[in-house]
Amino acid sequence: MAKQPAAGRSQKPQDRSAALGQTYKALPGVADEMLDADGNIRPVWQNFVAAIDRMTPAELHERFARADRYLRDAGVFYRAYGAAGSSSDRAWPFSHIPVLISDAEWQGLAEGLVQRANLLEAIVADIYDRNSLVEEGFLPSALVASNPEFLRPLVGIKPAGGHYLHFCSFEIGRGPDGNWWVLADRTQAPSGAGFALENRVATARAFSDLYAETHVHRLASFFGAFRDALQGNKQTNEDRIAVLTPGPANETYFEHAYIARYLGIMLLEGEDLAVINGRVMVRTVAGPKPISVLWRRLDAAYADPLELNQSSHIGTPGMVQALRNGSVTFVNALGSGILETRALPAFLPSICRHLLNEDLAIPSIATWWCGQKAEREHVARNVGRMVIGPAFSRLPFFDDNGQSVLGSTLRSSAREKITEWLETDGAKLVGQEAVTLSTTPAIVDGKLTPRPMSLRVYAARTRDGWQIMPGGFARIGSGDDVAAIAMQSGGSAADVWIVSDKPVERTSLLPAEENFTRNMPGSLPSRAADNLFWLGRYIERAEGALRILRAWHARFAETADPEQPLLAYVTEYLAATDVDMDRGVPESLLRSIDSAVYSASNIRDRFSPDGWLALNDLAKTARRFHDTVKPGDDASHAMTILLRKLAGFAGLVHENMYRFTGWRFLTVGRFLERGLHMTRLLGHMSGEDAPDGALDMLLEIGDNVMTHRRRYNVNTARLTVTDLLALDPLNPRSILFQLNEIRTEVEQLPNAFVNGQMSTFYREAMRLHSGLAVMTPETMSEEIYQKLEAELEKLSDVLARTYLG
C-alpha cells in the first residue's frame, strides 16, 4: 500500500518549502553542523531535513507558532539590560531548528568534558589549599593573587562534601577543521540549564512527530541524578536544599524559579537566610529551619557582606563562617569563579599533564597571557588575527560588552599602539585567536540559513561521578558576526538533539509507582509569606476600586455631571483612599495591579504559569485602558472587563493552589483587605448625611442587589444594608464573613497555639471577630467603623510581627 502523506502536508512540490535542505549552502571556509566537508547532508540530519522539506510554508509557520505559544504561555523570559542601568523583560529568543549531533560524536565530547571538569576541580582545590601550581611554576602568581575572583577568606576551608565543583558548564564551538574547542568554562554560577529544558519542550511541541520517531536522548535523567546528589549532600533528614538567587532583577531569574519548581526545592534570596550558631537557617513562618545545601546562583563575592564584598545587599552575613564550620555545601564552592579567568586556558595543557598525567582531550581556544615577554611579543606580531581583552574577565569576548579589541578591525596606526599597550598593561591582558565558529541552520525569512553558533553544555557531579547533559542549548548568531551570538546583542537559543541510532530510555523525574510517597511541602520562608499576603491585599484592593469605579461611571454615563451629589460624595471618598479620577482608569488602580505583579514576581517558584499569565494579562489590559478609555459608559464597560479578568486570576488561585501555608497567607491578605474595603465604604456611605442613592450604590458595589431583594421585604434602608454588608456571616462580602474566614485560616497557621495559648495574632483575630459578632445594625455607627478600620490595620501589623519579621 502506498504511504499516505502526513496530515497538513501537500503532495505538490511547488507548495513545499522550496526544498529547504537543497537550497542551503555552507559559508566558505567555515565548518557546518548540517553539511559535511563535501557539502552533503550529514547522516544525523537527513531524516529531519527530508521531513521539513515535505512541509509547506504554512505548516512550518503553524509548527513554529506552536512552540512560540508554549514559551509565551509558560512565561519564559530573560532580562535585557539597556543604557543607564535600565532593564526589561524580553520574550525568550527561540530559534526553532534544533542542532543535531550524533551520539557517537557526543560520547567523545562528553569524555573530554568530564576530563576537563576533573581538571578544574583539581586546580581550584590546589589554589585554595596547597597552592603548589603557583609554587612549582605551572600558574603565574599574578593570575591568582591579583585576581578579583580569588577570595582570600576561603583559603584553607575544605568543602563539607569534599568537592569544590558540583555543576559546571562549558561554552564550546567547532572550528574550521571540524574539531571542537572550549571557548569558556563556567564554574561561578552556570546559567541556562532551565532554559535548555524549556527549549526542549518547545522544540518537541513544534516537531512532535519527528521528536517521537527520532532517538533523541532525554534530559530528565541528568537532572534526576543531580537532584539525588544534592539530596546526598544533606547532613540530616531535616535539612533543606535551596536555590540561592540574587532576586527578580537578575537576567536569568525565570530559570532560577523554574529549576526550583522542577526539582521541588526552595528558591531563596540572601535575606531569607541567617547564620545562627554556625548553621545556615532559613527564616520561615514556623521559625528558623536548617539549610545544608545551597545551589548558588549569585556571584560568590556577594554571598557574605561580612567577610567578602561589604557592599553586598543580597548576601547573608556569616556565610563564610558556616563554611568553616562545615555546616553547608555550596554548589559551587565560593571562590570557584577564579576558574573562569580568561587567561587560565593558556596554562591548562601543562597543568593537565602535571595533575592528571594526560593531554587535554578538548583544547581551549588558543590563548596567550601577555604578562610574559614571549607571549606578549607573539600577540603583538600577530595582532591581526587576535582578540585582545582583559585577562581577568570571566566572559568570552562575544559576551563581554565590547571590552575586547578585535585586531583585524584596527587600522595600521592603531595596531602600532597595541605593542605599547601590551608593554604597559600586559599582565592585565590576554590575546586569543579570533574565533571562526561553525554554522548551523536557522530559519531566516522562510529559508534555512547558516548562522554561527556555540554550544553550552552542562556537567553535574552525581553519585556516580560527573555526568554530561545529553544536549544543553545552542546560542545562535543573529548574523554572520560571531559577536552577535550573545542574547544581549540579538542572538537566539536552540535546542540540541543528541541522536542515537537505537531507541533511548525515556526517563522522568517522577518516582516509580511502587516507590510512591507523599512528601509534605517544605516550610514557607517569611519573605514568600510576605509577598503572598500582600499579593492577596493588592488584588483585593484593585477589585474594590474597580467595583466603586464601575458604579461611579455607570451613573456618570446617565447624568454627565460629576457634581451631582452622589457622584461628588463618592469622589470625595475615592480621593480619601488615594483613588484619583483624572482618567477613566486611574493611575492608582494601575499601581495596585502593578504591585500585585511585583509581589507575584518575587515568588515565581510558587506560582503556576496560568496564574502568572492571567495576572500579567490583567496588568496589560489595565495599562491599555488607562491610555484609551474615556469616563462614562466606556469606562464602566472597561471596569467590567477588568473585573472578569481579575476574577479569572482569583479563580485560578482559589481552585488550583495547594491548601498549605502559602495559600493561607494569600487568603488572609484578601480577606483582610476586603474587610477594610467594606468597613471604609460603610463608614462613609451609610451615615445619616449620605445622599440619595448611596445605599443602592453600596449594594451594587458589594454585588448584593439581588440578595438584598430576596432577604428583606422592604426597600433599601440603612439598617438592612448594614445587616447584610457588615454583620451577615453568610454573605461573602460582609465584614463579619471576612473576620470569620481570617479566624478559620489563622487556626491552621504555624504556632497558632504556643504552649497551649493562642498566639498574639490568633488572639487579636478572635477578639475582632467576637466584638463584631455581638453587634446589631442599630449599634453600628461611623465611630464604630472608624475604630474597626484601625483595628483591622493593627491586625495586619500583628501578623507582620508574628510571621514576617
Question: Can you give a write-up of this model?
Answer:
Strands 3, 4, 5, 16, 17, 18, 19 and 20 form an 8-stranded mixed sheet that branches. Strands 6, 7, 8, 9, 10 and 11 form a 6-stranded mixed sheet that branches. The N and C termini lie far apart (about 75 Å). The protein has about 800 residues and is of the alpha+beta class. About 45% of the residues are buried. A hairpin with a 2-residue loop joins strand 9 (about 280-285) and strand 10 (about 285-295). Helix 3 runs antiparallel to helix 7 and helix 17 (about 585-600) runs antiparallel to helix 18 (about 610-630). It is built from 26 helices and 22 strands. Helices cover about 45% and strands about 15% of the residues.
Keywords:
805 residues; six-stranded mixed beta sheet; 22 strands; 15% strand; elongated; disordered N terminus
The biggest beta sheet is recorded as: 8 strands, mixed
Shape: elongated
Class from secondary-structure proportions: alpha+beta
* Unreliable spans: 1-18
Give Rg in angstroms.
31 Å
Number of helices: 26
Beta strand count: 22
Proportion of helical residues? 40-55%
Mean of residue pLDDT values: 89
Which oligomerization state do the chains in this entry correspond to?
A: single chain
β content, as a range? Answer: 5-15%
Termini separation: 73 Å
